[in-house]
Amino acid sequence: MMPLTAFCVVAALSLSAGICEASQVSENNVELLQRKLTLEPRLPPHVLLFVADDVGWAGLGAHRTAGNSAEAQGKAETQTPILDKLIQDGVLLERHYAASNSVPSRCSLISGRLPRDFPVAPRGMSNPATYWNPSDNVSGFYGIPRNMTGIGSKLKQAGYATHYVGKWAAGHATPEQTPLGRGFDSFLGFLGNENDYWTKQSDLEDFIADPCLYKFQDFSFYNATYRGGVADTIAVELGCDERVKGKSFTKTGCSEADPNDCLPEKCYEESMLVEYAARLIQNHNSSKPLFLTYASHEVHLPLEITASALKLEEKAQKFLEGSGVERKLPWTMARKYMAASLSYMDSAMGRLIDTLKDRGMFEDTLIIFISDNGASLQLTAGGNNYPLKSGKFSDWEGGVRTNAFLSGGFIPARHRGSSFHGVIHIADWYATLCSLAGVSHVDDVSAQANELLRLQGKPLLGEVEGRPQLQNIFSGINGRLDVLHLSTNAVLRWPYKLVTGQQGDSFWPGPVFPNCSSDGPDGAFVDVYTHMIPIDPPDFNMLEDCGVSGCLFDVEADPGERSDLSSDGDYATVLKSLQEELKSLNSKTLAAAIGESHPEACLQAFQLGGFVGPFVDVGDFYTAQVPGGKELEAYRQELMELHENLTDPGFVNRTAEALKQRVLSQRSTVSSECFTE
């Protein structure tokens, strides 16, 4: 028989609230109701969890207005008709919060914990994927600690088929930290923060000096029978019949030597990801519930796109003509690539929706769309969070208040086209999906691990703090009226938000941003073998220092965070209370060290044929590896030489200067070059 909790959710969504209330009396009453209604127990719904990457508040047409000519132009450039239609047929979640950057947000999503429960990279470290602390084999890695149960495992326990497609960015030093280790039956995607959309190479951007010496691709395929990189034979199955490894291409996938020699658009990473996701749906036995997480690469850097997706002018112009508005601000390169990336993401969702409908699964599917954080406002990124303040890496609303909505045939008709203004955190999806599937969200595995960790005097694993939200959403109840720990610098207790410390990019972007007159923010840095070194001095015009005592805002009345209430005596009690709450919650932050970069990460990737992957306690995880030999030994010597050089400040400074000159030479052409209209 279906677990009581699962039936209660299903009943509330498909019949009437009264049935749910009655079903809570006893299991016998549940059976009686089922017989009286001549209904067979329904399976939990299929779930499509679509995770967008760095999509800002202004990145959905539904959040765009056209109150003036600039707003009309911004709306015209935001071509997301499929997502907008799903919102019209679903529930727009207006107060969805996440961390201000990818890794802690995705860790929260997969584990149900708040960002304080994951190891923090040391200050100034950009990408610690190769880091490992051998003295702590539970939490001594970047990402989710080993012994936390992933959402894939929970839904598999409930009978779901579970698959993960796209960006992972939740730790991968050990097999247990990969999507397979977190309970997903298969994985196609990249494990780190970003890769090249065409070559799939890791850490290829101009500002990065890769600790593995630019050797590897980050694009893997894992399932029960194969665990390794996406080799050419697999790429061909996904539509890409051109070899890309070891080659370089322009942002639209053309040869740098010959702009007329271009890759097929099916070699574009997002195309390959959506092809695999669509096949999973096509081949799924619909009598079993499906949990498909599609974590899009769009719209994260590097801004790369297909040539066909760049043809936006006709759509934008048609909207402007219909609004009776004239375009006033020409495209910048970054803004145009951003618009094209948003449009491509929209079409990816469309492909998945069409496939669900073709299989007759859409009516039994719950679609959850979320962005992992706000858009980056760096000029090279092309993002925009208008009308919210700031963006990625800040605790202002533009960084942590993210796009989210529910849709799909599973949404009851009476709730379609509505908005929900209660507070939701990205960690809540863990408990929400567990409740929907009829399993407990309590993590017994981590609780057992804590017994040993306590004896060893090592950091303990936090409990799941996400909470079920589906009933709150459909009842219009704010399920998070208590304090929400957003970061070590910010807390929210509705409707008041406390922000402390120095916050960068403290400005309000306009509706058409960046544009040809934008002169910041840059805030550029170079990444010298995982260590960030700034190129530009801090822009104090865009830096706001709230100090230890903090800035206080009523984000319900003042969503743009323009009126600091911290000096208003009427709010002294609120301010003091939130200051105490933040101090108390910060004391619970996981105090685990992730060690230092280990050459083993690079050597393992070399043996895997040039693909990033787990490197600690791998055992028989990989199904095929390249045996060691002279090439491996030569590479080992290269790494040893690099690590020796890193102790020389002169070597580090010379590397930083070379990267700096490369970035500066590219800055104007990438970010602010204006197209002739």
Can you offer a commentary on this structure?
This protein is α/β, with parallel strands linked by helices. The chain folds into two domains: 1-42, no CATH class; 43-488 and 507-542 and 589-671, Alkaline Phosphatase, subunit A. It is 32% helix and 13% strand. It contains 19 helices and 24 strands. A ten-stranded mixed β-sheet has the order 9-8-6-5-10-1-11-13-2-14, with helices on both faces. Helix 1 (4-14) packs antiparallel against helix 2 (17-23), helix 9 runs parallel beside helix 11 (333-358) and helix 17 packs antiparallel against helix 18 (630-645). The longest helix is centred in the middle third of the chain and has 26 residues, at 333-358.
Q: Tell me how many strands there are.
A: 24
With strands numbered from the N-terminus, the spatial order across the biggest sheet is 9-8-6-5-10-1-11-13-2-14
CATH topology of the largest domain: Alkaline Phosphatase, subunit A
* Helical residue percent band: 25-40%
Mean pLDDT: 90
Under CATH, the homologous superfamily of the largest domain reads Alkaline Phosphatase, subunit A
Strand content: 5-15%
The span between the termini is 64 Å
Number of helical regions: 19
Please mark out the parts with pLDDT under 50 across 5 or more consecutive residues, or reply none.
1-40
Mind telling me the C-alpha Rg?
Answer: 25 Å
Oligomer: single chain
**Overall 3D shape:** globular
Sheet with most strands: 10 strands, mixed
List keywords for this structure.
677 residues; alpha/beta; Alkaline Phosphatase, subunit A; 10-stranded mixed β-sheet; 4-stranded antiparallel β-sheet; globular; disordered N terminus
